[in-house]
Design brief:
The protein has 206 residues and is of the alpha/beta class. It is built from 6 helices and 7 strands. The chain folds into 2 domains: 83 residues, no CATH class; 72 residues, DNA polymerase, domain 1 (Orthogonal Bundle), CATH 1.10.150.280. A hairpin with a 5-residue loop joins β1 and β2.
Length: 206
Amino acid sequence: MKMTKNITVLCCAWLYGWALVGCASDQTEFVEAPSSAGADSVLTEANGKDKTVPEEELYVYVCGEVANPGVYRLSGGARVYEALQMAGGLTDIADDTTLNQARLLEDGEKIRVPAQGEAEMPGHSQTDQGVAETAPQEQEGSGRVNINTADAVQLATLTGIGPSRAEAIIAWREANGGFTEPEDLKKVDGIADKTFDKLKDEITVR
């Protein structure tokens, strides 16, 4: 009887030990690494937070009767009046009636503000962007400005040439008998290599 009781105790102890092993294996399976799907979703969320979309930008060239002619960078959706503000505003003799200041800007465009009365001069017409030239004799054929015969208004339409530089060009050609080749333009005060490179395709000498 005593032996039977001892055998029963041993059997219970043996079964209890196997039960503990089974629980341990169950716990090991429960704490296994997260699935790849879960990891991907976290990575996607992290990338979504870090991802930045660059704001659209555009560049426009503002010249003519503005305080500071030049190329300006604006955000996408900007309008003409914003470009004029960045250029320092209009001068006292600017004619703002030829401009639609509410118009949306386009990347790479040129906005030229004419002087008062300039739009009525022969060879010019009004556009939304300012004053456009219609191909006078100096621009016949090639569409280039003849720097030996162009007046100050026509010269001021060249890239990087404002009213003051236009007058300097006229003064130089009168003092030196005109230009013999386009590169002579670099002899005029205020016109360096960089300026000439920007406008060399817009001029001719005849």
